[in-house]
Amino acid sequence: MDRVEIVEVGPRDGLQNLPDVIPVAERIAFVDRLIAAGLKRIEIGSFVSPKAVPQMADTAAVVAGIKRVPGLRLMALVPNARGASDAMAAGLDELEFVLSVSDDHNLANVRRTTDQSIAELEEVCTAIDPDKKLTLRFGLATSFHCPFAGYTEEARTLSVIERVLKIREGVEIALADTTGKAHPVNVRYLVEKALKTFGQSARFAFHGHDTSGFGIANVMAAYAAGIRIFDGAAAGLGGCPFAPGASGNIATEDIVNLFERMGVATGVDMPRLLEAADMAAEFPGAIPGSHSRLLPRQAA
Predict the structure, then answer these.
(1) Which pTM value belongs to this model?
(2) Which domains does the chain possess?
(3) CB half-sphere exposure, 192, CA atoms < 13 A
(4) What is residue 110's predicted lDDT score, i.e. its pLDDT?
């Protein structure tokens, strides 16, 4: 039986833009429900400036409050060396760095060009992990489309992948449809080229949004092209503050529902996942984007 790996990004990407800060106890309870559903890889939060993202100010406390189970892998987004150090001090050894393939989006997001961010990431990775013991992921925002510059040329994305792999081979690279404007043919072509060119040097994941209604179709396209790692957020929460008009992430339950119906194993308990998604959907200010939550539960 084929198998896919689901990376739950709801505790970070799903919650970061909510208007009201979610108490630490509720964030922990949310993660506990995700773990109870069988999810083994969870983006627990980010270690960024609390002024920039108030929702993530207490991520270290959330990490400390999680009851570990065998096989559980917690990952945090970090923007720089200080964030990486804070994450490691909290007990994490899986870090995610994000940069944009598009200069326009990268400038809006971190006030640096893509080239500047790559150079900075190389310095940071060398400084924090000289022995290369950490598990690193590089999230490539706007791999398919930029809200300011339009569709991203495949050659541009492939060039950024090549430069990231010069920092370190063997990392995980998440191709992100930040705006949700990619279409299945677009996704399949890029994924096929990325795997053909760099598949021996990196693991690849797909991170999508459902802005255009193509979210699950894009997951299927990425799967057909060879990707076996997929990001999702319970209830379909989330969205990038620097991608005007972008909706939330593809709902984890929709991804699980798709693959389980296809006979592809996910290791996730769907009824328990729906309970976690229901909790996420009830957070103040949440805008759910899930289809599976609306199905009759006995048929979900």
Answers:
(1) 0.96
(2) 5-295 (3.20.20.70)
(3) 9
(4) 86
